[in-house]
Amino acid sequence: MTAVKVAILGFGTVGEGIFNILKEKRKQLKETLGVDIEVAKILVHNVSKEREGVDASLLTNRFEDILALPQLDVVFEAIVGEEPAYGYLDAAIEKGAHVITANKVMFAKFGQALQEKAKKYGVQVGFEATTAGGVPVIKTMETILRVNDVLHIQGILNGTSNYILTQMRTEGISFETALKNAQDLGYAEADPYNDISGQDAFKKLMILSALAFGKQPNWEDVKVVGISEITLEQVQQADANGQRYRHIAEVSIDENGKIHAEIGPQLVDAAHPLYAIDGVDNAVALDTNYIGKITLVGPGAGMYPTASVMVEDYASMLSKQSVVVPV
Amino acid sequence: MTAVKVAILGFGTVGEGIFNILKEKRKQLKETLGVDIEVAKILVHNVSKEREGVDASLLTNRFEDILALPQLDVVFEAIVGEEPAYGYLDAAIEKGAHVITANKVMFAKFGQALQEKAKKYGVQVGFEATTAGGVPVIKTMETILRVNDVLHIQGILNGTSNYILTQMRTEGISFETALKNAQDLGYAEADPYNDISGQDAFKKLMILSALAFGKQPNWEDVKVVGISEITLEQVQQADANGQRYRHIAEVSIDENGKIHAEIGPQLVDAAHPLYAIDGVDNAVALDTNYIGKITLVGPGAGMYPTASVMVEDYASMLSKQSVVVPV
Q1: In this structure, are A89 and A199 located in the same domain?
Q2: What ipTM, to 2 d.p.?
Q3: What's the confidence (pLDDT) of residue B189?
Q4: Which end of chain A is less crowded, N or C, counting CB atoms within 10 A of the terminal residue's CB?
């Protein structure tokens, strides 16, 4: 039985979800993977705040305590923003730890650097949770891309925007009222700029572009439009015509290897794979050369959807290690 | 550079697709996996029939020629029916070869035996192509199940039935006319019994049950109903009510660990994840404990969708072997 220690950076919604799942599934993961996974440290701002079910000795506000852990096998990162997240993960890789992140802002910018560094240090980087929450688009694309070429990606990558557009249509309310409802329900932040401006979807699309095409477009060449200009009248007129507004992030590659990316509202009809995606769900439609079009749909955010795909990232890493196949 | 030899059993639509993809992607797979994959033998009934692009020396009608291949690393099986398919794969595993199958009839019955045997012989079994064609439901479930419990599965698993139900609704034609159209377009066999009776969906559902719950229900306890009793009037009445008939295969597990499975037409409304799935597409909606509901949609059959997920199975096996991570 291998015993490993894991650290969690951040104890917001996602960090707490990771902690709970690792606790609930510890016995099962021991049986299926032959590895005993112990959460050894959690990085938080405020170590004196009491957190239910969490032994206070696990908490630290010093990242050095994380790096000093013996047998540190993986760092789960569930904080926000580029720094200090990138610096933390970079340092963890140097210590020989796998890293798993939900941080799309950091990863859209530093994902390649992290992965190159991880390769050099013989560890892995998990980033399923950066894009489309619980929808397993990263692992699906990794598998598909071993044989298929992905040619074109269209996604609903921001659940808040999709919730607002859905509410405007089904409840006949204005953008402002729908946004207020989303905030009341905790779907939108107090400052909803990143969600409704398209910037959140933009970061996720850049991650998908890097995975599908091996590169991102120049960020400044990408037209990014949010949903705040869409009026109730437009939504109702579209509905009367059998169409719906969807906030779609799309990227494709042309014959010359040039990447084209665009983010903004689109009118789609019932035959479009994203027409039926309502509420806070995310969805990604992939055009591939052999399979054709496949579409993945699921929750775009939330404590357990996001946390569980991060733990799956780790379980996949452990499972690859444990496979012993004589070639 | 490792060099491996592969064999293909059957050279119908799927067998030919595998052959073409392995030829087209040989260089790329060499670069990405470090393995040179050579198709060394193809098992066919008629070795004297000319097949474009295929060197006649590759063809054999004797399975012993396959087993005698030096460096045989994998056998792709694209024939139909329980036997001789099972016997062939069983023998290939004994020779130390991985096996990859698209044969749901064989796999629903002998999948467990094959996997147990493969474990004993240190090889792997790929079966993504047995269920829902190009939709990556098997690998997605394998990943999800490392952490999530799958509680309930609903699928449109037979593209022919879905095409017929869609045509009845959108074209206002009878079951008989829609079936005739499906046959003219090559979607339905000359003998469409397996498709329209639900038997094809039944086999695929049994494979999903085994994967999700570790067991299948007793086959005789499963109610299997096809679509032939649905009238145009029923379809039109449903449409007027905002509902659609879908042929749904579903399976769940109760608190006592008992499996409940059922296959037949269901009326669903617009909020149902399978409502929007039209034409020959397949779709699978999975209810899980942490992620919630995720839905996968894509082509349920066809030369390249099916063949490419089989080659992906093999690429995944090779990629696991080539990962070297110091634990």
Answers
A1: no
A2: 0.94
A3: 77
A4: N
The average pLDDT across A155-160 equals: 97
Q: Which residues contact B228 (CB under 8 A, 6 or more apart)?
A: B175, B196, B197
B290/B152 same-domain check: yes
Q: Does A121 touch chain B (CB under 8 A)?
A: no
Which of A5, A204, A215, A320 is flagged as catalytic?
A204
| Residue B113 shares a structural domain with residue B159 | no
Q: Which residues in chain A are closer than 8 Å to B146, comparing Cβ atoms? A: 29, 32-33, 312, 315-316, 319
A298 and B291: CB-CB below 8 Å? yes
Whether B302 sits inside 8 A of A320 (CB atoms) is no
Residue B327 placed within a domain: no
Model pLDDT, residue A191: 86
A61: domain CATH number? 3.40.50.720
Choose among B139, B308, B327: nearest Cβ to A147.
Answer: B308
Q: What is the DSSP letter of B142?
A: H
Facing B312 at nearest CB: one of A124, A147, A317: A147
H-assigned helices in chain B: 13-24, 26-33, 63-67, 85-94, 104-121, 137-144, 159-171, 175-184, 193-196, 199-213, 232-240, 303-322
| pLDDT of residue A322 exceeding 90 | no
The model's pLDDT over B119-170, given as tens digits with 9 standing for 90+, comes to 999 999 999 999 999 999 999 999 999 999 999 999 999 999 999 999 999 9
Q: Which residues contact B163 (CB under 8 A, 6 or more apart)?
A: B178, B182, B187, B279, B280
Same domain, B203 and B241: yes
pLDDT over 80 at A326, yes or no:
no
Same domain, A290 and A236: yes
Q: What is the pLDDT of residues A205-226, one digit of tens each?
A: 999 999 999 999 999 999 999 9
Residues whose CB falls within 8 Å of the CB of residue A16, separated by 6 or more in sequence, listed in order: A51, A303, A307
Residues B318 and B285 in one domain: no
The whole domain housing A193 covers: 137-301
